[in-house]
Sequence to fold (404 residues):
Amino acid sequence: MSMASAGWYPNGDQWESYWDGERWLDMHRPIAPPPTFVAPDPVSSVSQQAPPIPEGPLLPFAVSGVIVDLRPEGLYLEGTSWLGRGAVGDKPRVVLWDDISTLERTSVGIKLREGRKVIQISVPSKMQDQAGKVVEEIARQFTVATGRTLTTAKVTRAEKLTAVGDVYGRALVRRIDEISEVLSAADHAREVALSHDLIVWAKSQKVKSGVEFAAAKLQELRVARGAHIPQQVGVVVGAAFGPNIVVFDDRVHMGRVAYPIDVLTEAQVYVDGQVQVTTRPSMTAAAFGSILPGTALIPAMAFGKKEKTDTRVAEFHIGSRGWVLKTRIPIGALSDARATAQRVNAIAAGIQRVRPAEADPVPEAPAASAPDITSQIERIVELERAGAITPEQAAAMKAQIIGL
Fold:
């Protein structure tokens, strides 16, 4: 070892000692085991080397039995479980951008208002961050589609009322425009249905003075277009909380439906049953007539008490081709119901089915006297006001009568 350089050298199988180049020192240590080779984990090594996987699209967003997605016209909602259908509705639908009043991220999920209606979508805690991004994306798409800003923070009561009122106003304008187009097309049946739907919808929105405002806008439209303004002729009140039937001079309303009165419309009051008269022994007559024992039955039967029992059931029916409305009415209201039925039948009898002149030309009639011409023109005006004929048909008929 005299030639060996200084360093640690083995001293047996488990120890090594230190040689200072000239002699052994009293310095010893255990021999360190050779390093163990550990094969790299293929999964971890790949994950460390590969770039992070980018996040997927935020929408569609599925949570708590509800699917939320975007459509060009609005927000798509679909319930995939009984809980989800209870939150967003039984059928898939799209909430129009103009019908969204507020959108909030809450501690329990997403809170959306469709007009005044609140839609609450629950979100688990582990998906709250993703829900926040979804809300921001919906708000961004709302701004792109409408040009308006939709806040996602918690709104105050005043802000909510303002937003709901704005949505109501925009929806009302759309419905009024649709009725205006129908009036231009002289589609009386469609105008009746849409006008009634407008009032039913306004009631469902529960906006303060919303029904009165909608009715006023509808009245303004009719006046501006020179359309017929319906006049109420009777109300048939249903018995035992039954539905009422409201009759106008050109249409009939019942609940959520409305139909026009045409030449085939007929109303009738039906009564079934009878008034029964029953007699029972009078105890008063028995007391005064019981002079002798056993004689009380004779005056009791002779002067029995009579009672009337009205078992009649009355119904009001009104209908035309393709529809029938009916409701039970109290027996005491028979006279009013019959009067309303007579008015309806008179209105229907005054309506004549008029075909376009080009489809069914009318043979030329001899010249009529001045009083006859006046009465015929008045009749045509009445038909036009009732909606039985269009303004164009009325003008053609007047020209034919005058001889132009």
User: Anything to note?
Assistant: The first strand starts at residue 7 and ends at 10. DSSP finds eleven helices and 19 strands in the chain.
